[in-house]
Every structure is written in structure tokens, then in C-alpha cells.
Amino acid sequence: MKPSLVLKMGQQLTMTPQLQQAIKLLQLSTLDLQQEIQEALEANPMLERQEDGDDFDNSDPLADGDELASAPAQEITFQDAPANAELPDENQWSEQIPSELPVDTAWEDIYQTSASSLPSNDDDEWDFTARTSAGESLQSHLLWQLNLAPMSDKDRLIAMTLIDAISNDGYLEETLEELLESFDPELDIELDEIEAVLHRIQQFEPAGIGARDLRECLLLQLRQLPANTPWLKETQRLVSDYLDLLGSRDYSQIMRRMKLREEELKPAIDLIQRLNPRPGSQIESSEPEYVVPDVIVRKDSGRWLVELNQEAMPRLRVNPQYAGMVKRADSSSDNTFMRNQLQEARWFIKSLQSRNETLMKVASQIVEHQRGFLEYGEEAMKPLVLHDIAEAVGMHESTISRVTTQKFMHTPRGIFELKYFFSSHVSTAEGGECSSTAIRAIIKKLVAAENAKKPLSDSKIAGLLEAQGIQVARRTVAKYRESLGIAPSSERKRLM
Prior knowledge:
By secondary structure, the protein is α+β, with helices and mostly antiparallel strands. The chain has helices spanning 17-26, 30-43, 90-96, 107-110, 128-132, 138-148, 153-164, 176-182, 191-201, 214-223, 232-247, 251-258, 262-273, 320-324, 333-369, 371-376, 386-393, 397-404, 436-448, 458-467, 474-483, and strands spanning 47-49, 295-300, 303-308, 316-318, 408-411, 414-417, 425-427, 433-435. It has 21 helices and eight strands. Helix 6 packs antiparallel against helix 7 (153-164), helix 11 packs across helix 13 (262-273) and helix 17 (386-393) packs across helix 18 (397-404). The termini are far apart. GO terms for molecular function: DNA-binding transcription activator activity; nucleotidyltransferase activity; sigma factor activity; transcription cis-regulatory region binding.
């Protein structure tokens, strides 16, 4: 069999670079889109950001029809300077600025700068650490306290090893025997020394740090409370001896063994509930994450209005000066480069406009379908799937999925991801449909109003939903309850 050349003709679908760019921008979140725009501004000299107050012609001498469309300009009012204001002339400036500054002086002592204009430290409202400090890890917080504690070099080495073995929740993850094996035998470290240093660390802040289990964590926090705290001894005994019974909500057994009445056991349990089972979580190690809404929904004169968040959507334009340098008949390398950059800038702006238009169409249809949620809350949420929005706007479901991913809507009820408004449905007794989000809201409401002594079981909740015409199985109720972070009925039992 010898090699040969075969010519075939066929048709296939391919995506142009412009379409690929439009799809890429469509699925980006607001923060990622801003970064993408910044990279485009740095790479393409034809693109520039249009700031508020700019007044110039956006027309492109080489644009073909409506290939380049600019964002609507905002009307900005400028304040004129006072009529009697006088600007110093050149001689006045030279008299005000000396050639040399006096010895042992700083620039801020002579001239007002942004740093010297900050509020003084005496101002109670000025908190420097709140504005400049970064997130602190638990280990760095414990090491800072370790540096303030007087210790020998040997104990300090043990303490640093113990701190490294503490988890983010504040618990010691390794046993003392395992830590002892990790040390060099030449140091001649004994198990009692490690335990003594651990007791020192357990006195650090936050209270309960360095515990080996939940019982020890709660006892450490109770020991740091004032001695005159009401019901402190009973609470310590309850945690030390009957924590397992407390976890299983066996209050009758606890009262019988501790010889306490219900009104005496309740304050002890309340004191335990005020403790922190995860003391390490008090030290925030991560920076806060902010959500920038893409769409803003508001009610005006009885109508719900949908608009893009202009603060998150920068306006771009083609630089008219550079665009005017492009010559039609010139085929030089410089002119070809500028023409290519001009075409890329047009397509980038067009892709941004297409993204905004698609986002507005989808958001408007979501608001139209979920008007009941905006008016009355989660219980009025209607079932909605991607196919419904795709049919309404005449797009494919994959496009709707890209639009609703990592896009957020600001409503009077809060900020929600667009995917939040999509949910499956459950049949009702009347033949209608009820959204799973609405069912979750009803379950949350029923649990909040239940009797703490006799919490509602999943079967009971399913019966109450069926009484309202919503046919939900017990296992479905359990799934919705777990998604809401609600414990089973056996763990929700409380003393009144």
C-alpha cells in the first residue's frame, strides 16, 4: 500500500477569532473583565478609557458604518473658579520655594502633602491598623505572643513546634508522643517538658487555643472566666463528665446524674453555647472578598427597572488621534500594524457591547419571571430553568449558562448571583409547580417557629408541606434541610 494524496471537499463549523473573543468576554466575571480590559488597554495603543467629562468626537475616519459605537456620554458640570482668585506668577513661586531647607527638617514640615494631611494619631476616629493591616494568620498571632513570653531557648523551640502543629480551628493536630519523636534525640527533650510548654501556649489568646479535643477546648475557655461567673462549677462538671450526653441531647439523663432541675441545667447549657468550639476561627487569615454587581434592579413608580452597573463597566473608545494616522492606500509595516490594532480595538469594543446587551436581555427576563420574589421574598420564587430564558431571548442554553455564571444582581433584597434565580420545580396538589427555593424558604420558616422541646422531624415537615399542597418526599425534605445547614431534629432539641 503506497502513500497517496486525496482531495476531499466538506463543510464544517469553525469559530472566528472575533466570536471566540466575544464568548470569552461573555463568561468573565466583573473583576476578571476589568483585568481583561486593563490588559487590552496596555497592549493596544488604539484603545483608551473614556473618563467622565471627556468631550471629544468619537468618530473613526476609517470606521465602516456602525462598526464602532461609543457608550452614551454623561453630562458633567464643572465648577468655575472664583472671579477674585489670583494665581501666583513665576516670581512669586520662586520666592515661596527656598533653595535649601533648614537642617533637621522634613518636607512635611514645610509643605502640605498627602501623608501629612492624614488625621493625627490623637483622633479617636482614626484607626491606622484598620486601614493598612493585612489578614493575620493564627500561627503569626501565636508567635507574636510567644515572643513576649519569657522562655528558655529549649522551651521556645518546643513552643514553635507546637504552634506549627495547631490547625486553623485552634486544635493540636498531633499527639505529644508524635511531636516528641520529631525532635533531635541529642536535645534530650522529655514528654513532660512538651506538656508543660503546651500548658503555657494554652494560656495564649484566643481562649481555648492548643486544645487536643472539644472537651479540653471548652474547659480552657471556662477556666479563663471570672470565678464569680454564675453556674461556672456546674458547667465545668457538665463539660468534663457529661459532654457526650449533652451532644446527644439526653437532658433527662444529665439531670438525673447531676441531680439538677431543668431550670438549673438551662443556664449551664447557655453558658456552654456562648463558648467558641473553633477558637482559631477568631483570627481572620484571609482577605475579604468583595462582590461587584453587574446589574442593578430597582423599583420606580411601581415598575421594576433593570440597568447595568455603570461603575463596573468602563467606557472605551478608539483614540481618534491614532486612528486619523491610518492611511487607506499605505501598505507600509507601520501602517499595517496600526490598521490591525484599529480593527482589534473595534472588535473588542463590539464584543463588550454584545456582552452588555446579552446581559441586559437575560437579566430583564429573570426579573420578569421572578417579580414575585422581588415583591414578597423567597417563598414567592417561581420555578425557572435555563431553557425558559433561552426561549424568551432567542439564544442557546449554553449562552445563558455563560451569562449567568459569576454575574451578580443587586436588588432591594440583597445581592444574588444570577444562577440563584434558577431552580427546579415540585408538583403541587392543584397541578401547578413550586420552586425548590420556595420550599427551602418554607422549611426554614417552619423550623424557626417549631417547639424547641419537640422539633419537627423530616416526616412531619413533609406532612406540613403536603397540607399546603406541596408534594415532597421525606428524603427530599432531608436534602433541602441539609442544604440550608439545619441539623436533624435530634440535634435541634433544646431546653426551654
